[in-house]
Amino acid sequence: MTIVSSPMSLAVSTSTEDFKFQQSEFAAFEPLMDAINDPSGNSNPEIDESEIDLLSVSWNQDYGCFAAGTTHGFRIYNCDPFKETFRRDLKSGGFGIIEMLFRSNILALVGGKANTQYPPNKVIIWDDHQSRCIGEFSFRSEVRAVKLRRDRIVVVLEHKIYVYNFTDLKLLHQIETLANSRGLCCLSHQVNTSVMACPGLRRGQVRVEHFGLNMTKLINAHDSRIACLTMTMDGLLLATASTKGTLIRIFNTMDGTRLQEVRRGVDRADIYGIALSPNVQWLAVSSDKGTVHIFSLRVRVVSEDLSTQSKAIDSPALSHQNSSSSLDALISPSIGANPGSSLSFMKGVLPKYFSSEWSFARFHLPESTQYMSAFGSQNTVIIVGMDGRCIFDPVNGGEMVQHEYVRFLKTQLKNPTTTTSR
Q1: What is the maximum alpha-carbon separation in the chain?
Q2: CA gap 346, 16 in Å, rounded
Q3: In the chain, how many domains are there?
Q4: How many CB atoms are located within 10 Å of the residue 249 CB?
């Protein structure tokens, strides 16, 4: 089918037969379609490793894997234990955006600027189980990001976000945003919640769409432009940072209430990434200052029964439960406490700086590389960029200790034409 809508002249093409979503975990990768494969017909051409540069890195939805887009294809890595599970080396060019859908056979691919086959204004939805392209989206402007849920495809442009239904690729929503060159957008990933957060139309504003509740919430998060944002898996909590890069704030997405504020530092910084631990006890922030900061959170700890929690979140009663008058349900003590100034008892008298919550633990890195972090098991933080893993003390905090180091672009598969399932 072909759908054209103005003024973007958006074209969507797929086969006449609706595809069925496959949940097989990393089905053995067959060669990609001819248009993506190397024109010579060799799906695994010999490419000098020194010629391969990293274009992008992105986590999958549960942070168990990450995909690396390179100037000559892409690669997928498992985090724990660390190993390369699949690679596609292409002479015809690379991919600037690789978006995984958990550990399934679905990938969203956007070509890098030097890709001779696919330009950066086109999104390809690839089903490796069927070894075919199941959707193709073309736009007049460059694609800034693609986000996937089991039921949604979200494409982020500079000033607009398109939300599609996964089963038939129909356009469901069009959302205008402030200039969004970073492609800021995040989704909830539990089955019974459907929440999206993105920049609003005002500086420092975050727009939260609760699709399941047919509700929009606008949160004035910062005075400066939004630089980074992330949500919990259930979409109930939102963490944001601005282009100033000094403060990170955590909000209740239902009513916009600010639940906690922590301070990364006093000087400006470019925030690369914010990560929330699965139990919402910890928050990690990486920046261009070469430091990953860990903060202890006082917000509600996620229930172990995610299915029960999802049903509660999706119910109309949630708006009452999580109103500003009943925030105690969202506040709980964590294992450690963030240090503050010795003058914090004079809150309201001295400048706000003196009452700030500072990082509980930290790890120092070279400032020349962009890093992104995620939480692993047993109080570990995985940092991609330094290509390794570090561990923090959940009681005493302080400096983290490097636990593992891997130069992931230099790893080799024993058989590059297959992928090991987990």
Answers
A1: 71
A2: 68
A3: 2
A4: 19
Tracing tokens 């391969």 back to the chain, one arrives at 52
Dump the DSSP string for 62-85: TSSEEEEEETTEEEEEETTTTEEE
235: alpha, beta or left? (left if phi > 0; alpha if psi -120 to 50):
left
Q: Is the peptide bond before 39 cis (omega within 30 degrees of 0)?
A: no
Q: Do 192 and 161 share a structural domain?
A: no
Using one digit for the tens of pLDDT, what is the confidence trace for 199-245? Answer: 999 999 999 999 999 999 999 999 999 999 999 999 999 999 999 99
Give the range of the structural domain holding residue 271, as residue numbers without chain letter: 184-406
Residue given tokens 């949160």 in the structure block: 219
Residue linked to tokens 């001779």: 116
Mind listing the pLDDT tens digit for each residue in 30-88? 334 444 444 333 445 566 666 788 888 899 999 999 999 888 888 899 988 888 888 88
Cβ neighbours for 86, distance < 8 A, ≥ 6 positions apart: 26, 29, 75, 76, 413, 419
The CATH number covering residue 353 comes to: 2.40.128.630
The whole-model pTM stands at 0.76
In whole angstroms, what is the distance from residue 159 CA to residue 213 CA?
25
pLDDT at 45: 57
pLDDT of residue 46: 67
